[in-house]
Write a structure and sequence with these properties.
- The protein has 255 residues and is mainly α.
- The longest helix is centred in the middle third of the chain and has 32 residues.
- It has one domain: Transmembrane di-heme cytochromes, Chain C (Fumarate Reductase Cytochrome B subunit, Up-down Bundle), CATH 1.20.950.
């Protein structure tokens, strides 16, 4: 079971992540979008979206540093494990709380606004609980384990000596189940749910994370309405004009 969970399963999920994006782009190119629902409701979205997106960017940045940068590298530049731990927990807590608040507001908005709920796909309805569980366990690890010392880890748990090593070994194609099998259960479950999220990622609205409007700067101009009168009795005036109801209904003016 340990071999399957920490050696086989990661590559199954990563294969789904990579191949799924190629499949989605080939067969659903016009569906490669976040399916914006701003037109349906904007008041809650104006608060929820910035909180969630800026928070999740901070969370991802912390994961990139914590998982991909070896502990020996930070020690080599004079950053002790204690200093790294304090900075990581502080920034991680701020980013995590912002992400949780934003996600709760987004889910509330999607569930309580009928027009937004109607345009939510089945895949996205399954994605939200999974994403919420991944974020919730990240909060448990950051605040519960590393800040409050729950689970018998009074000084916090140094995941960079176990979880980060396992993650880098997976990317280098020589994984071992030893590091993860000794990690706290919350870290193990967090990793497993994150792998599941990667597996379903290409089939949800999360694909928009890998989209960038690069072609927007180089595409030709789009003419929405010509500035020329084109046969009109007079040139168009600037701004809005009141509609002539007689012309609208085809009625003739009295002679």
């Amino acid at each position: 079971m340990k071999t399957f969970l920490w050696i086989v399963l990661p590559y199954i999920c990563l294969t789904s992540f990579v191949v799924g994006h190629f499949w989605r782009y080939k067969y659903d190119k016009f569906g490669w979008t976040s399916r914006s629902s701003e037109l349906y409701e904007k008041r809650v979205l104006s608060w929820a979206s910035p909180l969630f997106h800026f928070g999740i960017l901070g969370v991802l940045a912390g994961h990139v540093v914590g998982l991909l940068v070896p502990e020996s590298w930070t020690s080599a530049v004079g950053i002790s494990e204690r200093t790294y731990h304090v900075v990581a927990v502080t920034l991680g807590t701020i980013a995590g709380v912002a992400t949780v608040v934003g996600l709760v507001l987004l889910i509330y908005r999607r569930r309580m606004t009928p027009s937004v709920l109607r345009v939510t796909s089945v895949a996205d309805k399954a994605m939200y609980p999974l994403l919420g569980a991944v974020i919730a366990l990240g909060i448990v690890n950051t605040i519960g384990v590393n800040l409050l010392g729950l689970g018998g880890h009074g000084g916090g748990y140094n995941y960079r000596s176990t979880v980060a090593v396992w993650f880098r070994d997976v990317l280098m194609f020589h994984p071992s189940a030893t590091q993860m099998s000794g990690a706290p259960w919350s870290f193990q479950l967090h990793a497993l749910l994150a792998l599941a999220l990667l597996a379903v990622w290409p089939f949800t609205r999360l694909v928009h994370v890998l989209a960038a409007p690069i072609g927007y700067a180089f595409r030709p101009y789009i003419v929405y309405r010509s500035r020329e009168p084109q046969g009109a009795s007079r040139p168009p005036r600037r701004g809005w004009e009141e509609t002539d109801r007689r012309a609208e209904t085809g009625a003739r003016s009295p002679r």
